[in-house]
C-alpha cells in the first residue's frame, strides 16, 4: 500500500482503514498511512463492518455493493475493496482526503 493507504489492484481499489467501534459519533478522517473510521455499533456479528461499508458509501456517494471488507473482518485494521474503475476511485478518494485535510470535507 502507498503511504496514504490506497493501492490499485485487479478489480478495484484497496483501502487500509483503522476502525474504532462503539464510538460516540460516526466519522471518517485521513490518518497516517490509512483512513481512521469511527462507527457507533459494537463489533458483533459483522455489524461494525456493515456500518463501515455504509459510512464509506455515504461519504463517497458510492453504492454499498461496490464496497467490500476483504481482510481484517475481525480486527480493527481492515482492507476495503472499492470495485470498479480503480484509477477513478483512487482519484476520488485522494481528492476527498485532500479536502478533509484542508478542512473542507463534509464527513
Automatic annotation (TrEMBL):
GO terms for cellular component: cytoplasm. It comes from the Bacteria. Gene3D superfamilies: YggU-like (3.30.1200.10). PANTHER family: UPF0235 PROTEIN C15ORF40 (PTHR13420). Belongs to the UPF0235 family. This is UPF0235 protein NJQ99_09325. The lineage of its organism: Bacteria, Pseudomonadati, Pseudomonadota, Alphaproteobacteria, Futianiales.
Amino acid at each position: 500500500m502507498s503511504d496514504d493507504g490506497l493501492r490499485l489492484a485487479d478489480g478495484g481499489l484497496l483501502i487500509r482503514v483503522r476502525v474504532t467501534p462503539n464510538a460516540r459519533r460516526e466519522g471518517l478522517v485521513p490518518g497516517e498511512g490509512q483512513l481512521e473510521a469511527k462507527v457507533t455499533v459494537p463489533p458483533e456479528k459483522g455489524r461494525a463492518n456493515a456500518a463501515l461499508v455504509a459510512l464509506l458509501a455515504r461519504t463517497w456517494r458510492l453504492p454499498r455493493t461496490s464496497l467490500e471488507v476483504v481482510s481484517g473482518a475481525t480486527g480493527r485494521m481492515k482492507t476495503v475493496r472499492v470495485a470498479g474503475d480503480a484509477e477513478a476511485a483512487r482519484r476520488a478518494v485522494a481528492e476527498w482526503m485532500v479536502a478533509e485535510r484542508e478542512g473542507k470535507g463534509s464527513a
